[in-house]
Amino acid sequence: MTADQDVGLRIKSRRKELDFTIRELARRTGLSASFISQVERSKTKISLDSLRLIAEHLDIPIHHFFTEPEPEITYAAAIAPCDDDIDQPTLIEYTPVVRAGCRPRLYLPDSGVNYELLVKDLTRNMEPIFGRLSPGTGNVARRLRKPTEEFIFVLVGKLLIGINEKEYILNPGDSIYFEGYDLQKIACASETDDVIWISVITPPVF
Q1: Cβ count within 10 A of residue 113
Q2: Which of 201, 197, 142 is nearest to 169 (CA)?
Q3: Strand 183-188 vs strand 175-179: parallel, antiparallel, or unpaired?
Q4: Which of 20, 75, 98, 158 could bridge 189 with an S-S bond, Cβ 3.0-4.6 Å?
């Protein structure tokens, strides 16, 4: 299943859970009913701004659309002997470690947006996110549902941050701390390379 198919199915599932018709969701979001229908059927791409708007009116966080990783199988389960006559259930254990290839992910290739959660448990007080934007990516600032504080540390490339009326260019190694409501803009300021950063939000409402 592609990222677009997964997002479309999750929108449709949540819409039906709330007993919204496509026309009702269109009325609430200001998006066209035909566009929402095409998104649900994976006939068109969706931008982060439109996805954020839909998420707001479906009363769910953006991370609802992140692709979930496969559960990890423990070493103990892998080496445990099996009884040929009895089907042995796979042993799945919780681990606080999130491997690089197992992060919940939101990838919108046409928008050049890639977000990955660095934790699996969102019941904690902080939400660390790995962000990546392609050159030329526009404003991807997030309208969060409640007051937050956020810290950003740039790893690679140049990141433009708009805070209220001011804009800042962050280079590798630079960091910034701000109130979530003050964030107006996040964009890739690099001309040729992707920008990559780590963001920590509290409380976890992304």
Answers
A1: 21
A2: 197
A3: unpaired
A4: 158
pTM of the predicted protein model: 0.71
Residue 199 has what DSSP assignment?
E
Distance CA 116, CA 66 (A): 8
Please name the residues in contact with 177: beta carbons below 8 A apart, sequence gap of 6 or more: 149, 150, 151, 152
Q: State yes or no: pLDDT of 34 exceeds 90.
A: yes
Q: Are 136 and 112 in contact (CB under 8 A)?
A: yes
More confident residue, 76 or 71: 71
Handedness of CA 107, 163, 172, 206 (dihedral sign): negative
Task: Report how far apart the first and last C-alpha atoms of the chain are (Å, whole number).
Answer: 24
- Per-residue pLDDT of 12-28, as tens digits, reads 999 999 999 999 999 99
Tokens of residue 156, six digits: 């690679």
Separation between Cα atoms, residue 120 and residue 14, nearest integer Å = 21
Structure tokens at 25: 């969701």
Rounded (10°) angle between helices 22-29 and 33-40: 120
Q: For residue 119, give the 3-state DSSP assignment.
A: coil
